[in-house]
């Protein structure tokens, strides 16, 4: 554990990441690969809390734009995150890592209710904790939920694992000349609207001085981040 820069982190995954090469749904092989990356750092002694989006199944905001009531759409999105959480829990436990899904919306037959002290205790016992159903409230994204849970659980960093290597000045999938930032300030990130996380999440991190690290979800990047290597993009107050 002495090798680790952090003792406890909040790992944010997009729902789209679980779909792999598909446009929607859950790809078991991709989920297994992601869980292998997570398992590697848990084996090193890192305490990991996870927040997963639901965009691979249902995205509340986009449906709201098509005429659906925003609150109803957001609740449907929260339920989508529970499906993803259960898929990741299954994959992690298949490789020997006890995992608990704690939901902000009570559904006792499939997961525990989110209670901060209970989540904290699970982490102390070495279990991976998946915080599902966002904040439990409409009008808040899973980015905000990640920042909130990160603060509540006293995580030392928020790691946002994505399909790219960090934060770029423009979409690297569309522009060959996109330049990746190594470091960014919270205020600069907000002003430039770089899309690291939504403004509420970044503001929460800024007010509590918790760094946000954006890196690739594969390539061993998560392990390199927690060991203190200069990987991806770090958003902080320095």
Describe the structure.
With 238 residues, this protein is α/β, with parallel strands linked by helices. It is built from eight helices and eleven strands. It has a nine-stranded mixed β-sheet, sandwiched between helices. Strands 7-8 form a two-stranded antiparallel sheet.
Keywords:
238 residues, alpha/beta, nine-stranded mixed beta sheet, two-stranded antiparallel sheet, 8 helices, 19% strand
Strand line-up in the sheet with most strands: 4-3-5-2-1-6-10-11-9
**Number of helical segments with 4 or more residues:** 8
- The termini sit apart by 26 Å
Strand share of the residues? 15-25%
In helices, the fraction of residues equals: 25-40%
How many beta-strand segments? Answer: 11
User: Which structural class do the helices and strands define?
Assistant: alpha/beta
Overall shape:
globular
Radius of gyration: 17 Å
Q: Summarize the helix and strand pattern as letters.
A: EHEHHEEHEHEEEEHHEHE
Low-confidence stretches: none
Largest sheet, if any? 9 strands, mixed
Overall pLDDT metric: 93
């Amino acid at each position: 554990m002495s090798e680790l820069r952090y003792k406890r982190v909040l790992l944010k995954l997009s729902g789209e990441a679980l779909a792999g090469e598909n446009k929607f749904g859950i790809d078991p092989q991709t989920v297994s690969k992601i869980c292998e990356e997570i398992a590697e750092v848990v084996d090193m002694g890192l305490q990991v809390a996870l927040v997963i989006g639901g965009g691979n199944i249902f995205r509340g905001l986009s449906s709201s734009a098509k005429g659906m009531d925003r609150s109803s759409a957001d609740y449907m999105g929260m339920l989508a995150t529970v499906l993803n959480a259960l898929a990741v829990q299954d994959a992690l436990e298949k490789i020997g890592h006890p995992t608990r899904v704690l939901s902000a919306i009570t559904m006792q037959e499939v997961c525990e209710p989110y209670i901060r002290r209970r989540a904290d205790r699970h982490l102390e016992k070495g279990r991976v904790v998946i915080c599902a159903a966002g904040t439990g409230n409409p009008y808040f994204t899973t980015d905000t939920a990640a920042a909130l849970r990160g603060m509540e659980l006293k995580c030392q960093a928020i790691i946002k694992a994505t399909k790219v290597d960090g934060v770029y000045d423009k979409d690297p999938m569309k522009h060959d000349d996109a330049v990746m930032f190594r470091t960014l300030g919270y205020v600069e990130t907000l002003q430039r609207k770089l899309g690291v996380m939504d403004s509420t999440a970044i503001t929460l991190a800024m007010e509590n001085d918790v760094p946000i690290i954006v890196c690739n979800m594969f390539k061993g990047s998560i392990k390199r981040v927690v060991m203190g290597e200069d990987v991806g993009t770090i958003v902080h107050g320095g």
